[in-house]
Amino acid sequence: MKPFLEAFRGPVAQRPPIWLMRQAGRYLPEYREIRASARSFLDFCYTPELAVEATLQPIRRFGFDAAIIFSDILVIPDALGQQVRFVEGEGPRLDACETPEHLSRLSRRIDLAKLQPVYEALRGVRAALPPETALIGFCGAPWTLATYMIAGKGTPDQAPARDFAYRHRAAFGNLIDTLVEACITHLCAQIEAGAEAVQIFDSWAGVLPEGEFRRYCEEPAARIVAGVNARFPAVPVIAFPRAMPGGFSAFSLHTKADAIGLDTSCRLEAARAALDDGIVTQGNLDPLVLVAGGEALDEAVDHILATTRGTRHVFNLGHGILPHTPIAHVERMLKKVRG
Ligand code: CP3
User: Fold this and answer.
1) CA 174, CA 157: separation in Å to the nearest integer?
2) Ligand 1 contact, 23 CB (< 6 A)
3) Average model confidence (pLDDT) for the chain?
4) Can you give the pTM of this predicted structure?
């Protein structure tokens, strides 16, 4: 069995499997080269040959145990009819939905025709991957997608979406419901196209108070897991509620996710102790220590290996790899993890 999938279904491994969030990206010279050939970032995501190549680059170079399809979380708003573009050096820009009226102009269902290039890329990657490498599909979680859809861009504290959710509860609830269905549809289509596990990125889960976290992150994650499980009971679902306000046990019991992604600020030992033995943990290594390298990196890797020994763990970062990460540091980390 593929080592990544064995973390979920097999006996507990001697060494954890490893992949990195955002493993295809600007820290790789070969990525920067093909990125320059696309007109825009979304064009890049929607050109299967380029998406296949970007997905395979980190596998060829490092032999990670899993590939994650090269795409973006913002293809869902795009497929709901909201304008999405990426401004060089600044990040995503959407046609901001500042009022309930504006939101009501979006589709209730994603346009699957628009997302066909993503599924075609998954089929291409699956056919080209080495037999021991697993393929991961993903989506942005409803709350994180809503923060971009309402503000029209990334914001430091997600204040526009938090404010909107307090003022317009019904409209915001409808948006979350639409996004839950969109996530289920998109994840299931990715599995049909060859994804062997899926991850739900809730990058901005950490800004919400407890009640809002339960309503807008935990409950939607539970519904997405149930929706995917209903059609594909054997496919692992990884939830990544980044910087969530504690309560790992409750989150895990409620959502029934097969794995929980742990961000950098999370206390690994406490999270592991709170979770059932059958639940997989993933992540936690600080992306900045991977940039720094040296002894600090060795210590941080050893700490995670020691803390998770004898448990189901997938080695990963606590958030995406940073563009200025030296390739030699990734190699050094891999050597330590693989032993
Ligand atoms: O992990 C992978 O290798 C797969 C591809 C992937 C990308 N984005 C490619 C990408 C994945 C899984 C994502 C997820 C994503 N996208 C998230 C959730 C994870 C996280 O990091 O919190 C979010 C919030 C986004 C939205 C997004 N996309 C932003 C805010 C940006 C701009 C910021 C930046 O790093 O420039 C992007 C662009 C983006 N998505 C890039 C890549 C490789 C860089 C753009 C480029 O190459 O020009």
Assistant:
1) 22
2) yes
3) 97
4) 0.97
Among 55, 73, 125, 139, which residue has the most ligand 1 atoms within 8 Å of its CB, making it the best to mutate? Answer: 73
Residues annotated as part of the active site: 22, 26, 35, 72, 148
Q: At 46, which amino acid appears? A: Y
Count Cβ atoms within 10 A of the Cβ of residue 264 and give its class: 0-12 exposed, 13-18 middle, 19 or more buried: middle
pLDDT tens readout for residues 273-324: 999 999 999 999 999 999 999 999 999 999 999 999 999 999 999 999 999 9
CA–CA distance, 98 with 181 (Å, rounded to integer): 22
In the chain, what percentage of residues exceed pLDDT 90?
98
316 sits in which H/E element: none
User: Domain spans of the chain?
Assistant: 3-338
pLDDT tier for residue 154 given thresholds of 50, 70 and 90? very high
In terms of Cβ atoms closer than 10 Å to its own Cβ (0-12, 13-18, 19+), residue 101 is exposed
Closest protein CA for atom 48 of ligand 1: 41
In CATH, the number for domain 3-338 is: 3.20.20.210
Q: Is 68 in the pocket of ligand 1 (CB under 6 A)?
A: yes
